[in-house]
Each structure stands twice: as structure tokens, then as C-alpha cells.
Amino acid sequence: MTSPIPTWWVIYREPNPAAMEVVAVEPAPVEADAQDERCAEFVAAGQHAYVITAPDTDAASDIALRVWAKELVANPGSLTAADAYLSANTPAT
């Protein structure tokens, strides 16, 4: 049984340790070969993707941003890298 709520791939890149940019939100491929091919394209482009079930692309993008932020905070190495990046690149006030 499939869900009535669509599944999206939220494709993103991380331009620096403290940022995530959503590149695209697209319907998730159904066939395994299509999924594998698309994943290879992400890797080649230096991108990542979250698979999100949401009613529309905006909701999927918002959920992915929240998941990314929670993962950043939960990973001490990533959080340290983000803090260091921000410290080095934020002007003093």
C-alpha cells in the first residue's frame, strides 16, 4: 500500500560547514535503477538528498532544512566545524 502523501527528494549542497542550500525538490523515482542513477548524479555534483514524505515541495524543503539543522547540532564534529567557520567568517560587531 502506498501513502497518499507524496515522497520527495530534497536535493541540497553544503557550501560551507554552517550552511545548507536546497538545489531542487523533485518526486522520488519509483524504480530502483532510476534511484541509483539519480544518486550517482548527486555524488558527481557534490550534492546530497533527503527523502521526505510531505504534502508539497515547500513542506518537504522545510522538513529537510529542520532535519539538517538537527543533524548538525547532534554531531559534535560538524557543530565544531560550523562554529569555527562562523567565527572565522563573521565580522566583529
Produce the secondary structure layout.
Layout: E1 7-16, E2 19-27, H1 32-45, E3 48-53, H2 57-74, H3 76-89
Antiparallel strand pairs: 1-2, 1-3
Task: Describe the model.
With 93 residues, this protein is α+β, with helices and mostly antiparallel strands. 49% of the residues lie in helices and 27% in strands. It contains 3 helices and 3 strands, in the order ββαβαα. It is elongated, with a radius of gyration of 15 Å. The termini are far apart. The mean pLDDT is 93.
Order of helices and strands: EEHEHH
The strand count comes to 3
Strand content: 25-35%
Structural class: alpha+beta
Low-confidence stretches: none
Number of helices: 3
| Shape, principal axes of CA atoms | elongated
Radius of gyration: 15 Å
Percent helix = 40-55%
- Whole-number average pLDDT? 93
Distance between the termini: 56 Å
Main sheet makeup: 3 strands, antiparallel
Describe the oligomeric state of these chains in a short phrase. single chain
Strand order of the largest sheet: 2-1-3
Task: Write a concise synopsis of the structure shown.
By secondary structure, the protein is of the alpha+beta class.
Which descriptors would you attach to this protein?
alpha+beta
